[in-house]
Amino acid sequence: MKTKLILAHFLILGLSQVSAQFKTTFPLPKEVAHGTLPNGMQYFIMHNEWPNDRADFYFVQNVGAILENDDQDGLAHFLEHMAFNGTEHFKGKGVINMLEKQGVSFGKDINAYTAYDETVYNISNVPSQNKTLLDSCMYVLHDWSGSLLLADNEIDAERGVIREEWRTRRNADYRAGEKIDKVVFDGSKYAKRNVIGDLNVINNFKYQVLRDYYKKWYQPQNQAVVIVGDIDVTLIEKRVKEIFGSIPKPKKINKREYEKIPFHKENRYVLATDKELQRSGISLSYTKSKPLVQDQAEMTKSMQENLAIQMMNTRFNEYIINNETAGLAFGISNDNLSRLDSKFSLHITPKKGKFIEAFTEAYREFERAMQNGFTQQELDRLKTKMRTNYDNRLANKDKIGNAYWAEQLQLYFLESNPVFSVEGEHEWINTFLNNVTLAQVNTAFKALNPKDNLVLSVSAPEDATTKFPEANEYWNAIKTISNSKLEPYKEEELTASLVKEDLKEKPIAKTEDIKLFANAKKYTLANGAKVIVYPTTLSKDQILFSAYSAGGNSLADWKDLPSAQIASAVASYSGLGDYKFTDLKKKLTGKTANVSPYIGGLYEGFNGSSNKESLTTLLQLTYLYFQHPRFDNSTFDKIKEQYQNKLNNAPNSNEKALNDTISNLNTNYSKRNWLLTQDFINSFYLNKAKKFYTERFSNAGDFTFLFVGNISDQDIALINMYLGNLPSTQKAENYVDHKIFMKEGKTEKTIFRSMDTPKTTVYLHLENKEVAYNKKNKILSYMLSEWLTKRYLETIREEEGGSYGVQVGTNISQLPTPLFSLEINFDCNPDKADALVKIVHAELARVQTENITANMLEDIKQSILKNNQEQIKQNSYWLGALNSYVRDNEEPLNTELLKTTLSAITAKDLKEFIVNALKKSNSVQVLMKAK
What we know:
Layout (H helix, E strand, L loop, with lengths): L15 E2 L5 E2 L7 E5 L5 E6 L6 E8 L13 H8 L11 H7 L9 E5 L4 E9 L3 H16 L5 H18 L2 H13 L14 H6 L2 H11 L5 E7 L3 H13 L22 E7 L6 E9 L3 E2 L1 H27 L4 E10 L4 E10 L4 H18 L3 H20 L6 H14 L6 H14 L2 H9 L7 E8 L9 H12 L25 E6 L7 E5 L4 E6 L7 E8 L10 H14 L6 H7 L5 E7 L3 E8 L4 H13 L5 H16 L5 H13 L11 H5 L3 H11 L7 E6 L6 H8 L22 E8 L6 E9 L6 H25 L7 E7 L5 E10 L4 H17 L4 H18 L3 H14 L6 H10 L2 H12 L3 E9 L1
Parallel strand pairs: 2-11, 4-8, 9-14, 17-21, 22-26
Antiparallel strand pairs: 1-2, 3-4, 5-7, 5-8, 6-7, 10-13, 10-14, 12-13, 15-16, 16-17, 18-20, 18-21, 19-20, 23-25, 23-26, 24-25
Helix pairs in contact: 3-8, 9-10, 9-14, 10-15, 11-13, 16-19, 16-22, 18-23, 24-25, 24-26, 24-29, 25-29, 26-28
């Protein structure tokens, strides 16, 4: 369903045209203020309260790379970068500086993207109670419209950044995709554009060429302002009219043309190989025109197709899981291709060297559905699943975020994609599901059958030993399968109960309050299991669930670690009780519950969620994972095949070579640090995986179970019936600290690899075991990462133009041993690598000798406060905080305490922490360079 939201009672209204090419019969909901200013610019304003006190600002340009002349190849994207490098009201880095003072962060909250047909800017999560800030954001969008400064020196500085973005993005998948796109887009301008552009143009274009593109295409009639959030719509609309209405209408309107991808009578084939590719893929696709009018008939047709695609993909998934196959994954999809065209595709991921075999398997199952259609049971299950999903969406409509609505309004502006209320969506989908028939869905599916204008694309690692099938072998396979009579799809009836035991409620041994968490209670069950229930009102119908017990993989002998590491995956994908995995999914149709076991380094346990109605199902699944897990040979073999296929394609993987080197040095070549090798895969044993899993989940008395959200004391009886009947012993286990650290001192290593696009990757990791774990140090650690990020943005990206971006991350952990770590990594120009590494270390020295500026310290504090205000509104935050409290005795940091802690932190405190953390740290530095 291309549009998410529809209202049935609006269908009889007339056409509404918001795009030059597209129309819709569906008006916007009354909650959206929409208008067109005298200069031609449109605006969309909507009140939404998730999250509270936040607003998102989007500026949508109906222009992109497809409008470039040859001498402008890449300048649409270049211009997007320049929007952050000086405007009429915000000189230099004024846009970023102004916003970051309010905790709105560049990259996370301030961003943009350029595509073939549009360029979209966003300022997100803006504190909306600050009216001056709201005005400032509108002035930023105003300046993006037509008041970029485009200074010569800023343009020249950005050339290097764009070059490094080109270098970073130009990986094997990108290169293979580029070869395939030239065939898919053949005969259109899309075949000559790739958004990032031609480096020769980027390096040498005259300043005026960029300014000409800007002046020609960034005109109000091509633009829309989208503002969604906890705002006064009337007031914001008034300011939009004042601020954006002041932009003059151009004397000359440049008509926005649209490019059509031509129809090709002949079928086409393309093979795209690359030495660095890590997977193979086959796609059979055809291009089709998008409907120019979105009305009831088109929406119904689209939804019928959507049902068929979902059922086909479910069949594909069953086929892969339940059979010995030459393919690793099959699927079909309808995808956006360009403004006027979409494509229907059959996707196949083959095992190494099994191209024609995997294609034949996938096409046979596709043709089976084409010939015989789907079954009523399949459609009924899907209808039930969809009704449940939309019921849940309606129940939690107050948790639909600003970004979702902003993106829907963006699509309305660009393609007239309808946008309607959640209530209307729920009404329409239920009416549709009540009326749609199996015959209609089967007819819609048959209309998708690829017949002509086909592109068969194959991407694969370049390998002298691999013999690739000729194109005719694929076409002949299609012909042979299509001319054969295939048996209809069959399935067994599922009648067995999930839990067969007649469980009785057990007594509760002890009840306690959890201090610091209002209304939270801890129950000790008769078997020793601890259950903590924490009711919240943050989401109307959401229950989050987790469980933990100490031990994890730390209790496995190093020789058995490969089997231990796949144990929970084998259990998860084998099914439960009497039901294999695919049958279990059918059995759970209509239930909103999921549970997954995990075995980590120090703990084993569960993660899951449900709504109130499906709490019983969540508990049943948890019970079965303890009592009746399945360890099917076929599942084990599938998992082993997945690892083997990944290893088979690994020899030319530069990423794996780098990561393996880093992993070995970070662990000082610990024998417990298994890498993906043939020895690792050969050490998989089903009996060992099953034995280890069973041991880890044999004693419920050593587990703590946590429930957060729409849950109450009244639910403990139900929880107790399932968890209280689990087996237990008096044994309490703990994890083993194997003392795995990097080597003392400094370790440096450079590896050389063959590369199609030469680059140097820099990785630096500092580690210190002598930094105390406490709340203040956690905050100071984060402040260090933010300060370094800003410093490297200024020096390495902006001043040197040496990298698209430097990633900086810090962590201070408590378990198994208190440990501070700092990691820095980036790709860069090989010619500048050595100089950039020196800058990295110079900045590390600088932050130990200089105090952070007062303004920057305050910006980081505001960012921390803003992030905290957003996090505390979610159940996931409180589940994590509760877990840390009951497991690690770490008290939650409420907003007032956080404010007090932050206000007391000085530049001196930060410098002292940095010196303590970095001066005596051990380090690993790895450079990967091109041969």
